[in-house]
Amino acid sequence: MTNKPTAPNFLWGAASSAYQVEGDNTNSDWWWLENQPKSAMERNGKAIDSYHRYPEDMRLLADAGLNSYRFGLEWARIEPAPGEFDHDALAHYRRMIDTALGLGLTPIVTLQHFTHPLWFVKEGGWQSGKGIDRFARYVEQAATILQDVPWVCTINEPSVLTLSTRMMDRFVSGRATSMTVTSETGTALPTPDLEIGAVLAEAHAAAQDVLRTRTDAKTGWTVACQALTPAPGSEAKFAEVKYLWEDFYLEHSRGDDFVGVQAYTSQTVDANGIVPHPAHPDNTLTGWAYRPDALGIAIRNAAEVTGGTPIIVTENGIATRDDELRIRYTSEALDALFDAVDDGVDVGGYMHWSALDNYEWGHWGPTFGLIAVDRETFVRTPKPSLRWLGRVARDGYGREALAAA
């Protein structure tokens, strides 16, 4: 193959979320949850101290040859109390944007990545009837520092957010429960809540209205694409499950400037629903099957359901301690991406998850990062996978670059 899949302005980068890397986010609902006396979660603590060390993190990405960085703002820092905005926090995030731009990294900024101010959840959160207005008010403040940011993600993985919203409401209200439910096939995540999903879709639209009025950013949200496949004879159940997990949210991406596709693995849907990953020596540290082809499946489905909304891969990666395996997984995933582009799918960028090994929502074990971090000293050590991805980014956009790297 000699064709390149995209123009030279293709975004090659890595991603993080604010809560997972910053540390000491004491006004957040997740901080509250993990620090409950009976919590079984590992603590976030200072995380990897990226709140202070972000210039080093960005410089490592830029020096490797990447040209973009997806990172988040923390609502709980910007609005620690209802209607009270911390202008020092806004100035901090503006410095992050300026640092990225100064290093030649295109910033892709996420406004809501699973976490909320604790006061928002205590007020009833997305189910209070006030959630959309509260979010739009926060976005108005965030927009004051986003005028020259070219890409803004409003909400990260709304289908997954419906699950954590339900969980957080039960814990904060005192009706504590597990995040998982038991079914006939074992233990699995509950089904995304479309009632909450519909509220999030309205919040997404409200945020876009604010951003389109006050910034020049291209806007969209990111979707947790499951890359599901049907078992023989289970096509009807497959369509139902796929709609609940991703197609509902992809349909709401029609007409957006872009949609963020996030994919890691693939699962089968049978007559009972999603089939849990069976134990296998190739499974990742999260227990997911090794399926780099999932990215191609996800990209193609997003293109079909949205009717051609431009795509940015905002997350793709593997939880492993074996960095050679990370390179192999990423190479195979990118090969699937290039196949989709060859077939006419509009893909404008690839963000590896994650930039650094970080806090994975209650656990420190799964390592997705291109950069290792000593959690005692916070010393950063780039992995060979970062150098490899940087060479791909510098040298080209097709399979030749993968082979050369």
Explain briefly what this protein structure is.
This protein is an alpha/beta fold and 405 residues long.
Can you offer a commentary on this structure?
The chain has 405 residues and is an alpha/beta fold. It has a single domain, classed as Glycosidases (TIM Barrel, Alpha-Beta Barrel). The chain is built from 14 helices and 15 strands. It has an eight-stranded parallel beta barrel, surrounded by eight helices. Strand 10 (268-270) and strand 11 form a beta hairpin. The longest helix is centred in the middle third of the chain and has 21 residues, at 194-214.
Attribute tags:
single chain; 8-stranded parallel beta barrel; 405 residues; TIM Barrel; alpha/beta
Mean of residue pLDDT? 93
Q: Terminal Cα separation, in Å?
A: 16 Å
What would you call the structural class?
alpha/beta
Rg calculated over all Cα atoms = 20 Å
**N-to-C SSE series?**
EHHHEHHEHHEHEEHEEHEEEHEHEEEHH
Low-confidence stretches: 1-6, 179-187
Query: Which architecture does the CATH hierarchy give at level 2?
Result: Alpha-Beta Barrel
Largest sheet data: 8 strands, parallel, barrel
Number of strands: 15
Whole-number total of structural domains: 1
Strand line-up across the major sheet: 1-2-3-4-7-9-12-13
CATH level 1 name: Alpha Beta
Tally of alpha and pi helices: 14
- Determine the CATH topology: TIM Barrel
